[in-house]
Design a protein that fits this description.
With about 400 residues, the chain is of the alpha/beta class. The chain folds into 2 domains: about 140 residues, Aspartate Aminotransferase, domain 1 (Alpha-Beta Complex), CATH 3.90.1150; about 220 residues, Aspartate Aminotransferase, domain 2. The strands form 3 sheets. Strands 2-8-7-6-5-3-4 form a 7-stranded mixed β-sheet, with helices on both faces. The protein has a 3-stranded antiparallel β-sheet with strand order 9-12-11, covered by helices on one side. A two-stranded parallel sheet has the order 1-10. Strand 5, helix 8 and strand 6 form a beta-alpha-beta unit. Helix 3 runs antiparallel to helix 11 and helix 5 packs parallel to helix 6. The longest helix has 23 residues. The protein binds pyridoxal-5'-phosphate. The site of pyridoxal-5'-phosphate has 13 residues, from helix 5.
Length: about 400
């Protein structure tokens, strides 16, 4: 029997990473001590009090049982309370909030509740892959909104043709932004909302990095409006809980109710003991503050090193990344140089963006994920000076 992939599966590439992984593996075989700023997955342990709560709650829920797919009452109430405290917004926990296994899964699945074949979804470029892949698998067509330095890494809404706007059902935004690190302003959100309200487009705001900010707390789109809006947030980065798979969405009850209906057909919900762990995590800010401080220190160490090797630097105000310009070579060449000369892994910018009309808006950048320890980051900064 011949097993054939679907067109959508076949279209998914990945060769750039394959090449970089090959160089990395060869260096490891030669005994080089690699410092890995590639994947955006925190390496710090999940705080002990969260792990302790998980252990206790495994016993609390002795009989496993399927959880409520869209979140138990305690978890939904905890999100509502958290949103009131953090963003000063009032949300009805039963109708305006739901639980998700992780925001990756939620983002990927979401368009299935709203798209018919050929509908358009507006996706930032570069952007998190689940926006366009989820669109394609739901039968929609992504339209890419480039995030360029010239436009401060915001989409230029004037460039979207009218016929595309008319066919669009969802617009994805992601601030604080992965990979460019840009943060949103109220004015920007208002502009996006006006366009979406005028054209009947759901405004979907991925706020996975809302808690990793360094100066002012990042704002949420929910602070401006909930009509036609859904926000995706997650415990992954806030509380170093990527492996727990717990997230939440909130916004317009008409959107939430359809998304709940879809989700009931996809998965059976996050385990109750994980929801308990998330409630405990949401009740504490001290561990988040500590994490923000660590990311800030690592940011400053590397920014100073990039500056010393004469690369133009933009200090991130949020996220766990640096979006570094690569000077007169492209991101892939720069990534190879860093690996071969310094034993440092970063991600070439172009893997986060689609090439449209021969232009890849991210090809002169690399993304540096601030996940190694402060000590390792200091060592990496010293190694970087070899590039001077
Ligand atoms: C922009 C963005 N959105 C969503 C996610 C998914 O987070 P999770 O599925 O862990 O909640 C990530 C993960 O790196 C991300 O960078």
């Amino acid at each position: 029997m011949k097993i054939k992939p679907s067109k959508n599966i076949e279209a998914i590439g990945g060769y750039v990473f394959d090449e970089i992984n090959k160089i990395k593996e060869d260096l490891i075989k030669k005994g080089v001590d690699i410092i890995d700023f590639g994947v955006g997955d925190p390496t710090t342990p999940t705080p002990e009090f969260i792990r302790e709560q998980t252990k206790k709650s495994i016993d609390k829920y002795k009989a496993s049982g399927y959880p409520i797919t869209t979140g138990n009452e305690n978890y939904l109430n905890a999100i509502a309370k958290y949103c009131k405290k953090r963003f000063n917004i009032d949300l009805n926990p039963q109708t305006q909030i739901m639980s998700n296994l992780g925001s990756k899964e939620a983002i990927f699945n979401f368009p299935n509740a709203f798209l018919n074949n050929g509908d358009v979804v507006l996706c930032p470029n570069p952007g998190y892959p689940a926006y366009d892949r989820g669109t394609l698998f739901a039968g929609g067509k992504p339209y890419y909104m480039n995030l360029t330095q010239d436009n401060d890494f915001y989409p230029d809404f004037n460039l979207i043709p009218d016929d595309i706007l008319k066919k669009s059902k969802i617009m994805w935004l992601n601030y604080p932004n992965n990979p460019t690190t840009q943060i949103a302003t109220k004015e920007f959100y208002k502009e996006a909302l006006d366009i979406c309200h005028d054209n009947n487009i759901i405004l979907s705001s991925d706020e996975a990095y809302s808690e990793i900010y360094f100066d002012e707390p990042a704002i949420s789109l929910l602070e401006i409006d909930t009509e036609g809006v859904i926000v995706f947030n997650s415990l992954s980065k806030r509380s170093a809980m990527t492996g727990y798979r717990i997230a939440w969405t909130a916004g317009d009850e008409n959107i939430i109710s359809l998304f709940k209906k879809l989700k009931a057909n996809i998965d059976s919900g996050t385990p109750n003991f994980i929801q308990d762990a998330a409630i405990t995590a949401l009740g504490d800010e001290a561990h988040v503050e500590k994490m923000r401080n660590e990311y800030k220190q690592k940011r400053d160490i590397l920014i100073s090193a990039f500056d010393q090797i004469d690369l133009a630097v933009k200090k991130p105000e949020a996220t766990i990344y640096i979006w570094q310009k690569t000077g007169n070579i492209n991101g892939i060449e720069f990534t190879k140089q860093l690996l071969e000369k310094c034993g440092i892994v970063v991600s070439p910018g172009e893997i986060f963006a689609n090439t449209i009309d021969d232009i890849n808006p991210a090809d002169n950048f690399v993304r540096v994920a601030l996940v190694p320890s402060i000590e390792k980051t200091k060592e990496a900064a010293e190694r970087l000076l070899k590039l001077k």
